């Protein structure tokens, strides 16, 4: 079975630059490489082919591939994270930081993500280019399976954009998403909720309505109630 645009697929992959691994879905590969992160869950990711869920070069390469075979691809910067832009390297007064800046520190400014590359006296150099900008990437990947279940497709979109696992049900075209505890305070959820809803409507067939449910249980003391799961919240398309 050849993969086509619009298919949801589970893929395992390892990405590297000049032989140095920067990302992998394989736990054993990360441990052997010394890049293992204990807090990270290593598992195949589910994406929609053609949905811009991965970099363009990898997304395009998935079309017409077969399940279970390992593929290798080299991706130029223009099909990955773009070329470096020197205008995105800024000099910032250290007084503008909430804490003392150090090399490698990640920062956010005006919605842009960057990292500190140098600190000289009262100035810190912040690079707002993606860390892989200007790099030619190598990927090894395997398409493990095609996902057919619309609920699993929707859950995968939520996972991709928020990094959180959700439970959902589908009945008569209505997708009900059970919100996990504390999600209303999660910045990634607040920023990505609208995009999740839009992508589910666009890429998952058979869904005509989305309901977000959150439940609050009365606490045993006088503290404010904490969110648990289930109480309707209108979805944003």
Automatic annotation (TrEMBL):
Transmembrane segments: none annotated. It catalyses: [protein]-peptidylproline (omega=180) = [protein]-peptidylproline (omega=0). Coiled coil: none annotated. GO terms for molecular function: peptidyl-prolyl cis-trans isomerase activity. Residues 215-237 are annotated as: Disordered. Keywords: Isomerase, Rotamase. Residues 6-84 form the PPIase FKBP-type domain. Belongs to the FKBP-type PPIase family. PANTHER family: FKBP-TYPE PEPTIDYL-PROLYL CIS-TRANS ISOMERASE SLYD, LONG-TYPE PEPTIDYL-PROLYL CIS-TRANS ISOMERASE. This is Peptidyl-prolyl cis-trans isomerase. It comes from Methanolacinia petrolearia (strain DSM 11571 / OCM 486 / SEBR 4847) (Methanoplanus petrolearius).
């Amino acid at each position: 079975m050849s993969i086509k645009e619009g298919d949801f697929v589970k893929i395992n992959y390892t990405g590297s630059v000049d032989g140095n691994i920067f990302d992998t879905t394989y736990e054993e590969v990360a441990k052997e490489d010394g890049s293992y992160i204990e807090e990270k869950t290593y598992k195949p990711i589910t994406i929609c082919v053609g949905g811009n869920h991965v970099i363009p070069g990898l997304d395009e390469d998935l079309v017409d591939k077969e399940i279970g075979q390992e593929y290798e691809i080299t991706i130029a910067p223009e099909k990955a994270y773009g070329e470096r832009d020197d205008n995105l390297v800024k000099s910032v007064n250290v007084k503008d930081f909430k804490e003392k800046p150090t090399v490698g520190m990640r920062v956010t400014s005006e919605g842009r993500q960057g990292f500190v590359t140098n600190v000289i006296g009262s100035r810190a150099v912040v690079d707002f280019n993606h860390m892989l900008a200007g790099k030619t990437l190598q990927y090894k990947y395997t398409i493990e399976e095609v996902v057919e279940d619309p609920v699993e497709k929707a859950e995968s979109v939520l996972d991709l954009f928020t990094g959180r696992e959700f439970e959902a049900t589908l009945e008569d075209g209505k997708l009900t998403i059970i919100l996990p505890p504390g999600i209303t305070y999660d910045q990634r959820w607040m920023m990505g909720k609208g995009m999740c809803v839009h992508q589910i409507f666009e890429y998952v067939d058979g869904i005509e309505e989305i309901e977000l449910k959150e439940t609050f249980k009365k606490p045993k003391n006088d503290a404010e109630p904490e969110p648990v799961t289930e109480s309707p919240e209108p979805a944003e398309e």
